[in-house]
Automatic annotation (TrEMBL):
Its main location: membrane. Signal peptide: none annotated. One of its GO terms (cellular component) is plasma membrane. Belongs to the ZIP transporter (TC 2.A.5) family. It is a multi-pass membrane protein. GO terms for molecular function: zinc ion transmembrane transporter activity. Residues 148-185 are annotated as: Disordered. Keywords: Ion transport, Membrane, Transmembrane, Transmembrane helix, Transport. The chain crosses the membrane at residues 29-48, 69-88, 100-125, 202-225, 260-285, 305-326, 338-358. It is found in: Membrane. This is ZIP-like iron-zinc transporter.
């Protein structure tokens, strides 16, 4: 008896046995490339627009701000509507053994995921802080120094463009000796503070991408074999493009030393290929894989729950809190700018939540 067999219902009637739907096979193959284009465009455009010497001056800063706030809303809606809700359905399926109904496993797994990410980040930040302290620096984790430079990367590009801010131990003097800064492009040994800033940014974006990539693979698998392919296909094109815009806007905000410049591009490419890979795998196993089967429900439910916890933590703590509460520029901004930012975020959240009606 396998582990999963203990949680399956004995009567497999109407529980998705056999393979998935294989109609419109040509369109399913085409979906690999269509979604690849949409996902890659959404994730890579903000990164390339920020880096391109020709395109960057031609794209107003307001476009990047809109993408950043809109993307934050998209990520938060994805966590609740596109991950946690399906996980509750999957782990509450009538095809599973009665034991699954006696406890809200999906919520428990999401809760576990939130605290796991929290502990990982605490360890990473304490390690980084200790490393800085050993060379006489202190790290401003919430970005209360210059601009809005937070531990998870810059939340603005005004005062702190291209710099990692390292505050003096007393945190009060503006004297250069007591409030040293190190340029992101500095390759000297004293740039170890910059390395800490780079590592914290990379850890933050890696956690975000991990949760989204798991979700994207499962979306691809489902799309490849679902019997509601046409409707789901159209919805997922928009879903992946908007979600990619959210990821790409975060990647474009990263301020890294030259040797880490490949990270945002790599992150955009990883996002762009995961759903097409999921579709391709689903097409390859379409004769045996069925998303409604008991095994698929258990595996998808657990992964969706885990991913939901990651995105809930990232969205509420690292995006919302650091964007609006710990961002000095936002705190001191006009009411109009604050209202605009909130409206952009709510727009992204609302559109992504609406897409949850179909996918």
């Amino acid at each position: 008896m396998t582990f999963l067999s203990m949680f399956r219902r004995d009567d497999p009637t109407d529980c998705g046995n056999g393979g998935g739907d294989s109609t419109t096979f040509g369109l399913r193959i085409a979906s690999v490339f269509i979604i690849l284009i949409g996902s890659m465009f959404g994730a890579s455009f903000p990164v390339l627009a920020r880096r391109s010497k020709w395109l960057s001056p031609r794209v107003p800063q307001g476009v990047f701000d809109f993408a950043k706030y809109f993307g934050s809303g998209v990520i938060i809606a994805t966590a609740f509507i596109h991950l946690l809700s399906p996980a509750l359905d999957e782990l509450g399926s009538g095809c599973l053994a009665p034991g699954w109904a006696v406890y809200p496993y999906a919520l428990a797994i999401a809760l576990l995921s939130i605290f796991m990410i929290f502990i990982v980040e605490i360890i990473a930040f304490r390690w980084g802080t200790a490393k800085l302290a050993s060379i006489g620096f202190s790290h401003d984790a919430h970005g209360h120094g210059v601009g809005g430079m937070a531990a998870h990367g810059p939340e603005n590009t005004s005062e702190a463009e291209g710099h990692a801010v390292l505050n003096g131990n007393d945190g009060s003097s503006s004297d250069e000796e007591k409030n040293p800064r190190v340029s992101v492009g500095d390759d000297s040994e004293i740039g170890s503070g910059v390395i800490d800033s780079a590592l914290t940014q990379i850890i933050g974006i890696a956690i975000l991408e991990f949760g989204i990539l798991l979700h994207s693979v499962l979306i691809g698998l489902t799309l490849a074999v679902t019997n509601e392919f046409k409707v789901l296909f159209v919805v997922i094109i928009f879903h992946q493009t908007f979600e990619g815009l959210g990821v790409g806007s975060r990647l474009s905000q990263m301020k890294l030393p030259p040797k880490y410049n490949y990270v945002p591009i790599l992150g955009a490419m990883l996002y762009g290929i995961t759903t097409p890979i999921g579709i391709a795998v689903g097409l390859g196993v379409r004769s045996t894989y069925n998303p409604n089967s008991t095994t698929a429900s258990i595996v998808s439910g657990i992964l969706d729950s885990f991913s939901a916890g990651i995105l809930i933590y990232t969205g509420l703590v690292e995006l919302l809190a650091h964007e609006f509460l710990f961002n000095r520029d936002m705190i001191n901004s006009s009411n109009w700018k604050l209202t605009y930012a909130i409206c952009c975020m709510l727009s992204g959240c609302g559109i992504m939540a609406l897409l949850g009606r179909w996918a």
